[in-house]
Design goal:
This protein is of the alpha+beta class. The protein is built from 15 helices and 15 strands. The strands form five sheets. Strands 5, 6, 13, 14 and 15 form a five-stranded antiparallel β-sheet that branches. It has a four-stranded antiparallel β-sheet with strand order 2-3-1-4. Strands 7-12 form a two-stranded antiparallel sheet. Helix 3 packs across helix 4 and helix 13 runs parallel beside helix 15. The mean pLDDT is about 80.
């Protein structure tokens, strides 16, 4: 084989140029990470059942889902956890080499069959399926720079305006918010409730009946009276918009006109959906979200995309709020790769100097100077086809390969 290329130098140069071109085109497409993905791919199922205890969550939600997902293809194992805030998560792990997108579709189809048997509150909140690497990649914070905003204001703004924007960044697998949206909270006085002969279900029924979305239709539409030539859409304000309107919800009334309002037996106020987290940043109110990478994502480009998106959102941020990034692993990943590349360059220089020192021939020194970069660029093409990433271990393997190339 060596004699074949020695006698055909032009053909050998053409092959070398193709190898170089393939390597140059492959490098931007390779994912960059600190370590290779040695763990099997997994998908996280997040479930919310407000007010449920871990025992109730396990009996009415988790056990039903686990029975259905047991038949998913390439399933390796799954584990679940729940807490006293009504939140639960099921981590489903698949065999190495499984296409995570196809596995996510199979998992969604299995969950659809059990969804009608889940409690109404769970179906209303929805089930989230997200494919993400374990471990937090970055923490994004939102803090108040003036006393005008408190933690509940920051959490509500982040949940409504920032979380979805971060999920759209390429490479982001999951955004876990350590906070919640604002919600109406009704604190019922049990003594007053019992005194008026009511129950908690009566309160829930009254709230749902007097705060609902209504589709009233149109007036003057067909079939219409003779001579009716126009029709108008009817607008009905069915949903309540303020705390005071909720306080005025009627629970009970009689023929004399007397009525019992929700505010008479309960304290109605605006608060957070969950008070499980309390966040401060440098002593000021703040909220934060943890970001996990999608499988096979480029850590450095994802971090750049997140920071660029935060810069765009900062332009429309209310005065008195400020984005922060208190935790970011991308600089360490980048620095680690840079150090390995630096070691790689130093090894190349040392090899060339040693060959020039002992052989005293420029031609023998130039041969590895040309062969080594061509072989290493060809390695990047093979890495892309094999599903490898640029990480500390693969770069270190290239450093060791330089010595083997020179020996050959």
């Amino acid at each position: 084989m060596p004699h074949f290329f020695i006698r055909r130098p032009v053909f050998a140069w053409v092959i070398a140029l193709f190898i170089i071109l393939g390597g140059v085109l492959s490098i931007p497409q390779l994912p960059v990470a600190q370590y290779p993905p040695v763990a099997p791919p997994s998908i996280i199922i997040s479930v919310s059942y407000p007010g449920a205890s871990p025992e109730v969550m396990n009996t009415s939600v988790i056990s039903l889902i686990e029975r259905e997902i047991s038949g998913v293809d390439n399933l390796l194992y799954f584990e679940s956890s729940s807490d006293t805030t009504g939140m639960a998560s099921i981590t489903v792990t698949f065999k190495p080499g499984t296409d995570i997108k196809l596995a996510q579709m199979d998992l969604q189809n299995q969950i659809k069959t059990v969804e009608p048997r889940l409690p109404q509150a769970v179906r209303q909140n929805g089930l989230d399926l997200e494919a993400a690497n374990s471990g937090f990649f970055m923490m994004v914070g939102l803090k108040a720079t003036t006393p005008a905003f408190q933690e509940d204001d920051l959490s509500d703004y982040f949940a409504r305006n920032v979380s979805d924007e971060l999920r759209r960044v390429s490479g982001v697998g999951k955004v876990q918010l350590f906070g919640a949206e604002k919600a109406l909270r009704i604190w019922i006085d049990p003594q007053k409730l019992h005194g008026f002969g009511l129950s908690a279900s009566d309160v829930l029924t009254a709230v749902s009946q007097q705060n609902m979305v209504v589709s009233p239709g149109r007036t003057g539409d067909e079939p219409a009276a003779e001579g009716q030539t126009v029709s108008y859409p009817i607008t009905v304000r069915g949903q309540l918009t303020s705390v005071e309107e909720f306080r005025n919800i009627t629970l009970k009334s009689d023929i004399t006109g007397a009525r019992l309002k929700l505010g008479d037996i309960a304290r109605v106020e605006s608060g957070l959906q969950s008070y499980a987290f309390g966040i401060r940043e440098n002593g000021v109110p703040a909220t934060a979200a943890a970001i996990q990478l999608a499988p096979g994502a480029n850590a450095i480009s994802t971090a750049v995309g997140i920071r660029a998106r935060l810069a765009e959102l900062s332009a429309v941020l209310p005065e008195g709020m400020e984005f922060t990034v208190p935790f970011d692993t991308a600089p360490f990943v980048k620095l680690s790769i840079v150090k390995v590349v630096q070691t790689f360059a130093e090894a190349m220089v040392l090899v060339f100097l040693v060959m020039l020192l002992f052989l005293h021939k420029i031609r023998c020194t130039l041969i590895p100077a040309i062969v080594a970069p061509v072989a290493l660029l060809g390695t990047f093409t093979v890495m892309l086809l094999s599903g490898y990433s640029i990480n500390i271990l693969t770069m270190f393997g290239m450093v060791l390969a330089i010595g083997i190339i020179v020996d050959d």
